[in-house]
Amino acid sequence: MTLQLHHHPISSYCWKAQIALEELGTPFETVVVNLGDAETQTEYRQISPFGKIPALSDSARGQDVFEVSIIVDYVELHYPGRATLTPADPAAALEVRLMDRVFDLYVHMVFQSVIRDRLRPEGVRDPFGVEQAREQLRQSYDFLDGRLAGRAWAAGSDFTLADCSAAPALFYADLIEPIGEGRPTLGAYLAKLMQRPSVSHAIEGAKPFLRYFPALPEERARLAAMGLG
């Protein structure tokens, strides 16, 4: 297989890459990376210098690519498939890029800061920082609830890179800080994303590993209600 996606099934950014490659219809295989193993992590840094997942190895072109949005760009450039995730029209592409950045920077990275805090030793946790992150998520939800009004998908009528970013970001963020009934447009959008075959496939692949997600009891209950606990 020419393309190998180095990933872990529970990783939200890996979901983004997997969803995108499945939407493109580009053949690839997955390689699970155990970053908890020091030897594996050292070897993996030859592919991804910062030791982050996902990364893409292209044996045909002799290239390794890291950073998930760049991975998608690379595949679209060299292995175009049945779909286009970034429009050719510059104005439409700009909106896709904007929404991709919003989901990555103002939802994805924010919920991850809450998770990182849970993994710290008890004496060095940051409750104030966690509450700031929750407030940022609420602000992001409010923005998105308005921005998505009248749209079929994140950036307009077509499923794009922005939706690949949105799916894992909103799935995990909603566990930590529920979107709630007061944001009906965003809630309906998340429900629609969850029905997308590429998204449901990523979730199904993560299901055996979600027991390792550092969930609070109420979050574990929400996972269980979805059949994922």
Q: Describe the oligomeric state of these chains in a short phrase.
A: single chain
Provide mean pLDDT, rounded.
Answer: 95
Query: Could you say how many structural domains there are in total?
Result: 2
* Main beta sheet strand tally, sense and closure: 4 strands, mixed
| CATH architecture field of the largest domain | Up-down Bundle
In angstroms, what separates the terminal alpha carbons?
Answer: 34 Å
- State the share of residues found in helices, binned by percent: 55-70%
Structural class given helices, strands, pairing? alpha+beta
Secondary-structure element series:
EHEHEEHHHHHHH
Count of runs of 4 or more consecutive helical residues: 9
The name of the CATH topology of the largest domain is Glutathione S-transferase Yfyf (Class Pi), Chain A, domain 2
Binned strand content: 5-15%
Kindly report the spatial arrangement of strands forming the biggest sheet: 2-1-3-4
The CATH top-level class label of the largest domain: Mainly Alpha
Give the overall shape, derived from the CA principal axes: globular
Describe the overall structure.
There is one protein chain. The longest helix is centred in the middle third of the chain and has 29 residues. The chain has 229 residues and is of the alpha+beta class. The protein contains nine helices and four strands; from the N terminus they run E-H-E-H-E-E-H-H-H-H-H-H-H. Helix 1 links the parallel strand 1 and strand 2. Helix 1 runs antiparallel to helix 6 and helix 5 packs across helix 7. Strands 2-1-3-4 form a four-stranded mixed sheet, with helices on one face. It folds into two domains: 76 residues, Glutaredoxin (3-Layer(aba) Sandwich); 125 residues, Glutathione S-transferase Yfyf (Class Pi), Chain A, domain 2 (Up-down Bundle). The model has no long low-confidence stretch (mean pLDDT 95). The chain is globular, with a radius of gyration of 18 Å. The protein is 56% helix and 7% strand.
